[in-house]
Amino acid sequence: MTLQEFKKYGIERLKTKSPSPQLDLEVLLQYILNCDRTYLLLHSKDPLPQEKETWLQEAIQKRMTGLPVAYITGHKEFYGYDFLVSPAVLIPKPDTEILVERALDLIIEKMEARPNQLLTICDMCTGSGCIGLSVMKSLIELYKIPLGQLPKITLIDISEQALEITQQNIEHLGLPRDLFRVVRSNLFEQFSLTGGWTFDLILTNPPYIPHSLVNQLLQDGRNEPRLALDGDVSLTGDPAYTEEGQKTDDGLEIIRNLIPQAKEHLSPKGQILMETGEYNAKAAACIAQDHGFKTKIHTDLEGQLRLVEMY
Q1: What is the pLDDT of residues 227-239, one digit of tens each?
Q2: Which residues touch 240 (CB under 8 Å, ≥6 apart)?
Q3: Are 25 and 10 a contacting pair, CB within 8 Å?
C-alpha cells in the first residue's frame, strides 16, 4: 500500500469518529515516518513499510475510541516547541499561547525596569509545563537573554504524574534544570506551610470548567485528566458547595481559592495572568477585584474572553 492509498483508507475509517480525519492521518503519518507534510506530498506513491502500517492501524483504532492524536503520539506542539504529553496532563491548546505572549511582554518590561534584579516567576497548575517552559525557552532563544539574567521559574502542580511530565519536558527542551524549581502542592499550600517565596509574576491555567460540563467533555473518550478540568472542586478535593448548600457549577471554586493565595505570594507590583473560560472570565475578574486587584481581560485567537490580567 502506498502512502496515498493508506491516507485515503485511514481518512475513510476516521470519517465517522473524528471531526478532523485528514489532519489526524497526516499528523500520524508525519510522526511515524519522522517527516513533514511536504514529504508526504512528494512521496505519496512510495510504499508504506509494513511495520509502519501496523503501528498506524493500531493508532487509527485508538483514535476511533476518541483518544486524541497527541496522546497517541505522545507529542504536541505549543508556541512552536515540541512538548511531551500523556493522559496525566491536559493537551496544550493554541488559545493558551496568548498567556505566554503576554507573560513575555511583562517579563521584558520588568527586566528593563529592574536590570539588576532577577525575576521570580510561578507557573501554577503547570501540567506539562508548557506555559513556564515556553516562556523560558523564548527568553533564551528569541530574546537572547544571558543565562545569568534569566528569571527563576517555580512549576507547581498537585499531580505527581503531571510533574513527571514537566520534568521530562525540561530535559526534552534542553533547558537548564537549575533555572527551575518543581514543587508538588495543592495550590500554594506547601509555600504557606514553609514561608515560601514571593513571585514577580504568577502564570496559571487552572481548572475552570463547570462540573456539569466536564462529563460532556469527556464522553468522547478524550481521556484528559478530570483533575485538570473540573473547576468546582474544594481545597480538599471534594465537590464545592455554596453557602446555601448547593453544589457550585460555575467552574470558579478553584479560582476563588487561588486568587487570595496568589495575592499572599505576590511581590510588590507583581501581576497575575490567569486563563479562564470565555463564559466565566468576567466573573473571575470580579473575584480578583473583590481582593483588591485591578483587572484587564484579553481575548483569545477566536476573539473570546480568555486571559484575566490582575495587577
Answers
A1: 999 999 999 999 9
A2: 232, 233, 234, 247, 248, 253
A3: yes
